[in-house]
Amino acid sequence: MFYKHLPTGGSQGAVQKVARNIGDIVSDSGLDFSKTEAWGFLSRAKAFLEAAEVLKTEIVTHNRITLFAPTLHNAGHGLELLLKGCLIHNGVPTADAVNYRHNVNAMWELPQVSKLREIAAINAKTTHAEALASGLYPDAATVADPAKLFEEYRHELGRLHAEAGKFPLRYPTHVDERAPRTPLLVGTLWRTADDYVKRPNEFRMI
Question: How far apart are CA 106 and CA 52, in angstroms?
């Protein structure tokens, strides 16, 4: 597998230690970031996106195409949590962030998540470069602008995730819906969530 994962398994104590270290890094005012509402959304976002990454790898390495919809469902929910956490981190009241419900495409365009958009674009290029180096994706060489392609895939994921009355990623209905391919999309989102929980100051609006 061509993604450079940091170890995320281990004991609860190990997870708590990571959270405390992150809090120490971002806490100029003595506030432990791991105890904020934003952290709750962001850490859960990474968990769902890591689940999507694991499922995506099963699709790629073992051709388990039945995992396609679950992969996108986890990615969509992870993106929703990531955006809500970013909004809260940048001063949007929690109730207002939650009121966006599943509309990730509306949240993605808000000025409070501009840093997240910038970092996601960088991560799309990194994910694409690793895909090329891995040799697992012959069609990766045809992608001229991975950041632009990620945006197209991300928008389609948002549409499917929020489409009122259908929810084709959750239920076996509307099977004629087209969905974005997963490697670039999921790899970019997972990497962005991983960056956020490790270096949250980079996502903070000045």
Answer: 22
Q: Distance between CA atoms of 156 and 132, rounded to whole angstroms? A: 23
Structure tokens at 58: 């099963």
Q: How far apart are CA 125 and CA 119, in angstroms?
A: 10
What CA–CA distance (Å, rounded) separates 169 from 160? Answer: 7
Nearest in space to 41 (alpha carbons), one of 1, 91, 77, 2: 77
Which residues constitute the domain of residue 51? 36-203
pLDDT tens digits for 62-88?
A: 999 999 999 999 999 999 999 999 999
Within-domain flag for 11: no
Token pair, residue 142, equals 């045809």
Q: Write out the two tokens for 171.
A: 């239920």
User: Number of structural domains, the chain?
Assistant: 1
Task: Report yes or no on 194 lying in a domain.
Answer: yes
pTM attached to this predicted model: 0.84
Please report the beta strands in 39-98, taking only residues with DSSP state E, as ranges in sequence order.
none
179 contacts 70 by C-beta, under 8 angstroms = no
